[in-house]
Amino acid sequence: MTEVLKVSTPKHTCAVNITSEVRKVVGKSGVQDGLCIVYVPHTTACVFINEGADPDVLRDILYMSEKLIPWSDPNYEHAEGNSAAHIRSSIIGNSRVIPVSGGDLLLGTWESIFLAEFDGPRQRKVLVKIIKED
Q: How confident is the model at residue 1 (pLDDT cuts 50, 70, 90)?
């Protein structure tokens, strides 16, 4: 089963917690044990798992992404002017695999799933595929 989530990103650079939407897809699938693949089919957005309880963690991640890979650099050559977004999403990655057990995601106590936007605001797609364990 594959479902497409539509996520509106509110700012140029941000992270949107999509954990509850992914959990709904897992529940709807009826799969008790298996894998959940979360994939972002975009080159300037990505998906990651990290702490969702303290918003300062997200602020720090986004701050450091800007500091390490600044939006403007005279040596960037990509004509569209969004090289930093491509680099950031490439480093973080466009997919995650989460085990499913007992019909729920096996995330750690503080873990959440985030869609990171680096070239927004935009309407993004997130593909969620549930694979049943045999």
A: confident
User: Of 26, 33, 37, nearest to 128 (Cα)?
Assistant: 37
* DSSP three-state, residue 83: helix
Mean pLDDT over 81-100 rounds to: 97
Domain ranges of the chain: 2-132
What mean pLDDT comes out for the span 65-71? 96
User: pLDDT at position 134, please?
Assistant: 81
Under CATH, which number does the domain 2-132 receive?
2.60.120.460
Kindly report the three-state secondary structure assignment for every residue of 99-114. Answer: EEECCEECCCCCEEEE
Strands 34-39 and 45-51: unpaired
- ∠ at Cα 2 (117, 39), nearest 5°? 30
